[in-house]
Amino acid sequence: MRHLAPILGLALVALAPMAVAKSADNRTIFDDFVDRFYRQRDVGGAFAAHVAPGYVQHNPGLPDGPDAAVAALAPMFARPDARFEVKHLLVDGDLALVHLFGQGKPGTAGAAVADLYRLKDGKVVEHWDVLQPIAEGSDPLAMADAPPSDRNHTAANRRAFSQFIDLLFARGDVEQAYRRFVAPDLIQHNSRMGQDRDQAVEAIRALHAMPGASFTVQRILVDGDFAAVHYRGKLAADDKGAAVVEIFRFDKGRIVEHWDMLQGVPETSRNAHPMF
User: Fold this and answer.
1) pLDDT above 90: residue 264
2) How many CB atoms are closer than 10 A to CB 114?
3) Whole-angstrom Cα distance, residue 205 to residue 256?
4) Whole-model pTM above 0.70?
5) d(CA 168, CA 183)
6) Domain boundaries in the chain?
7) Which of 146, 199, 256, 274 has its CA 20 to 30 A from that of 153?
8) 143-264, what's its fold?
9) Window from 3-12, 49-58, 170-179 with minimum mean pLDDT
10) Region at 194 (left for phi over 0; alpha for psi -120 to 50; beta for the rest)
11) Does residue 5 surpass a pLDDT of 60?
12) What CATH number labels 13-133?
């Protein structure tokens, strides 16, 4: 894997102009989808306008197709006391990610949610998600004050993030990945990872050291000062593992803030696709 890193880097640079143009087109489409779906809560209208008939579903609780998604989601989004607050929105080529707080059932603490979509020919054709219930007393979606994301930084942050991901997942060198690309005063929204870079390194090294642990990257997105990775994490060889999305904020070329969501893989699924 380490020999592929330079080749991957060159390929990403070569494809960058194409990705920028595709991202711009898809951003317009996806902004409207997000506005209709999450903000106006017009689930049926959002899906009718922007989702393809052959919509592939990776949420294990739903079958394929837009009709099943609308039937399941529209009643929940229609509740006047429900809350759906978009925190981050990333668009990178054919991929788009919505990071949000969701509280579909009143009286619950809600969940941190990452909805990941793939677009093709101007339509949403595929969906993955990770939902993590919010533990009492924690605030995993809290956002520190920060300047708006600058999309002029996308290319530089993509290079840095690709190297970070290679070191962290392909080579398993947690120490070097974090020392090179993460600021010492990292703002951490996962309470289990401590409050800065050193505590994060300690916690992640312990996970990587577990017998049979593996972390398989599925896709990455970079959009301005934000980057995300979607992967399957296993802490034992016979573990079904979990779907994980981690989101990072860059400032001056270094990662300064981190959010994540984790959802265990269930025993059964209502569709034929894995969560990945």
Assistant:
1) yes
2) 27
3) 19
4) yes
5) 15
6) 13-133, 143-264
7) 199
8) Nuclear Transport Factor 2; Chain: A, (3.10.450)
9) 3-12
10) left
11) no
12) 3.10.450.50
